[in-house]
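---------- Forwarded message ----------

FYI, see the Glutamyl-Q tRNA(Asp) synthetase record below. Original note from H. follows.
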Amino acid sequence: MPVSSPSPSLASPSTPPYRGRFAPSPTGLLHAGSLVAALASWLDARAHGGQWLVRIEDHDLGRCLPGAGEQILAQLARVGLVPDEPPVWQSQRGTLYEAALQRLIEAGWAYGCTCSRKDIAAAVAAAGGQRERHGELVYPGTCRPSRGGLQGRPARAWRLLSTDDLAGTQDLMLAWRDRRLGLQTQTLNVEVGDFVLRRADGLWAYQLAVVVDDAAQGISDVVRGEDLADNTPRQLRLQQLLGLPVPRYLHTPLVLAADGQKLSKQNGATPLPLDEPLQALRLAGERLGLRIEAGTVADWLAAAVAAWAAGPLMA
């Protein structure tokens, strides 16, 4: 079984200058969980003497709240987290995603798909069923070129072939080392399947957009919540096929709601009250293993950077 290990060592003479980022989606304002993610990425950048950027992931404008991106930037500034460059807005970057998709199509790795969710469910059932992954069925490859492709029908979506060969016969196992979670592996075609790059409604999928943007912004380190670790293999594969640099990855512990589920906008997380920014930082820092007392936001952040640089904090 082919194994691909694209992750570089954590320190080498060729290590690029540190550039990190926080990439919120403006479908709502920052909540306690998203502040933890923002703070972790900012601290890691500062502890490495690097730059910290913000990218507003608003490519799905239909789900975004008017003005939420600007309000998120204001929330970050309220707790002292100010990006080193002007924020980037994904809604303005469609030409970059289109160019990447065309490269993958021309190389034979991306193909058009006509399947609806109902079609996929029927195909999976006919084949005896496959393991559901986070509520999504692994795509059975119905529209792969090796199986006849579109046959004159217009594509609804575009997918990436998840095998190690264009014929669609060889398993593709991806291995990488997360800075907190350690060695991780995933057999992409078995556990994920051929994943969407551009949706049937014309919107860009997160996987393609994030890979293109990280490369375009020169991101060397991605620090984000552990719920996104499962996305990493898809992004590694796209980086391989597009010939893009591979960032280092650090996935932080999740902030959980009272019912044990990830705290998120989808399960009712309330916007972060920032009338007391220092208290908000203290609570976020505790989630990351930081127990810091300080009189001002600036003093708290300075102490937090020193603690972060001193060694591992997160469980």
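H. also flagged this: The chain has a mean pLDDT of 87.
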